[in-house]
Design brief:
Number of strands: 0
CATH topology: Cytochrome Bc1 Complex, Chain D, domain 2
Radius of gyration: 16 Å
Order of helices and strands: HHHHHH
Helix content: 55-70%
Number of helices: 6
Structural class: mainly alpha
Number of domains: 1
CATH architecture: Orthogonal Bundle
Oligomer: single chain
Length: about 100
Protein backbone atom coordinates (compact mmCIF):
# COMPACT_ATOMS: atom_id res chain seq x y z
CA UNK A 1 0.00 0.00 0.00
CA UNK A 2 2.81 2.43 0.87
CA UNK A 3 4.53 1.62 -2.41
CA UNK A 4 1.37 2.39 -4.37
CA UNK A 5 0.88 5.68 -2.53
CA UNK A 6 4.50 6.66 -3.15
CA UNK A 7 4.19 5.79 -6.85
CA UNK A 8 1.06 7.93 -7.15
CA UNK A 9 2.73 10.87 -5.43
CA UNK A 10 5.74 10.60 -7.71
CA UNK A 11 3.51 10.49 -10.78
CA UNK A 12 1.57 13.56 -9.65
CA UNK A 13 4.81 15.40 -8.86
CA UNK A 14 6.21 14.60 -12.28
CA UNK A 15 3.09 15.97 -13.97
CA UNK A 16 3.23 19.19 -11.97
CA UNK A 17 6.92 19.66 -12.77
CA UNK A 18 6.34 18.89 -16.43
CA UNK A 19 4.08 21.91 -16.86
CA UNK A 20 5.34 25.01 -15.06
CA UNK A 21 2.75 27.22 -16.80
CA UNK A 22 -0.13 24.75 -16.92
CA UNK A 23 -2.82 27.32 -16.10
CA UNK A 24 -1.83 29.49 -19.08
CA UNK A 25 -4.28 30.06 -21.92
CA UNK A 26 -2.02 29.19 -24.86
CA UNK A 27 -4.39 30.51 -27.52
CA UNK A 28 -4.58 33.90 -25.80
CA UNK A 29 -0.80 33.86 -25.30
CA UNK A 30 -0.20 33.23 -28.99
CA UNK A 31 -2.55 36.08 -29.94
CA UNK A 32 -0.80 38.51 -27.59
CA UNK A 33 2.59 37.45 -28.90
CA UNK A 34 1.55 37.87 -32.53
CA UNK A 35 -0.03 41.25 -31.88
CA UNK A 36 2.76 42.73 -29.74
CA UNK A 37 6.07 40.90 -30.18
CA UNK A 38 6.53 39.39 -33.63
CA UNK A 39 7.20 42.62 -35.53
CA UNK A 40 10.04 43.63 -33.20
CA UNK A 41 11.55 40.15 -33.09
CA UNK A 42 11.29 39.79 -36.86
CA UNK A 43 13.05 43.11 -37.43
CA UNK A 44 15.92 41.96 -35.21
CA UNK A 45 16.12 38.28 -36.16
CA UNK A 46 14.46 38.05 -39.57
CA UNK A 47 11.67 35.84 -40.87
CA UNK A 48 8.98 35.44 -38.19
CA UNK A 49 11.34 36.36 -35.34
CA UNK A 50 11.33 32.84 -33.88
CA UNK A 51 15.14 32.75 -33.97
CA UNK A 52 15.15 34.89 -30.84
CA UNK A 53 13.85 31.85 -28.95
CA UNK A 54 15.94 29.19 -30.65
CA UNK A 55 19.32 30.90 -31.12
CA UNK A 56 22.37 29.23 -29.65
CA UNK A 57 23.17 32.10 -27.27
CA UNK A 58 19.67 32.87 -26.06
CA UNK A 59 19.26 34.72 -22.77
CA UNK A 60 16.58 32.45 -21.30
CA UNK A 61 17.64 29.14 -19.73
CA UNK A 62 14.96 28.39 -17.12
CA UNK A 63 11.20 28.64 -16.69
CA UNK A 64 11.73 31.35 -14.08
CA UNK A 65 14.01 33.21 -16.51
CA UNK A 66 11.39 32.98 -19.24
CA UNK A 67 8.74 34.50 -16.98
CA UNK A 68 11.16 37.28 -16.01
CA UNK A 69 11.98 38.02 -19.66
CA UNK A 70 8.31 38.26 -20.62
CA UNK A 71 7.72 40.60 -17.66
CA UNK A 72 10.75 42.67 -18.71
CA UNK A 73 9.45 43.03 -22.28
CA UNK A 74 6.01 43.95 -20.93
CA UNK A 75 7.53 46.68 -18.76
CA UNK A 76 10.07 48.00 -21.27
CA UNK A 77 7.53 48.22 -24.10
CA UNK A 78 4.76 49.62 -21.90
CA UNK A 79 2.33 46.91 -22.98
CA UNK A 80 0.46 47.06 -19.66
CA UNK A 81 -0.33 43.36 -19.65
CA UNK A 82 -1.85 41.93 -16.51
CA UNK A 83 -0.13 39.01 -14.77
CA UNK A 84 -2.47 36.49 -16.41
CA UNK A 85 -1.58 37.86 -19.84
CA UNK A 86 2.13 37.54 -19.04
CA UNK A 87 1.44 33.96 -17.92
CA UNK A 88 -0.40 33.22 -21.16
CA UNK A 89 2.49 34.47 -23.31
CA UNK A 90 5.04 32.68 -21.13
CA UNK A 91 3.06 29.44 -21.33
CA UNK A 92 2.75 29.69 -25.10
CA UNK A 93 6.48 30.38 -25.53
CA UNK A 94 7.38 27.51 -23.24
CA UNK A 95 5.09 25.04 -24.97
CA UNK A 96 6.20 26.13 -28.45
CA UNK A 97 9.93 26.78 -28.06
CA UNK A 98 11.50 26.26 -24.65
CA UNK A 99 9.96 23.09 -23.19
CA UNK A 100 11.06 23.84 -19.61
CA UNK A 101 9.76 21.32 -17.09
CA UNK A 102 10.35 23.21 -13.85
Amino acid sequence: MKTLLLACLLLISAQVLAEPFKSADLVAGKALLERNCISCHASSFGADGAAIYTREYRKVHTAKGLAAQVRNCNTMLGLKWFEDEELNVTGYLNKTYYKFTE
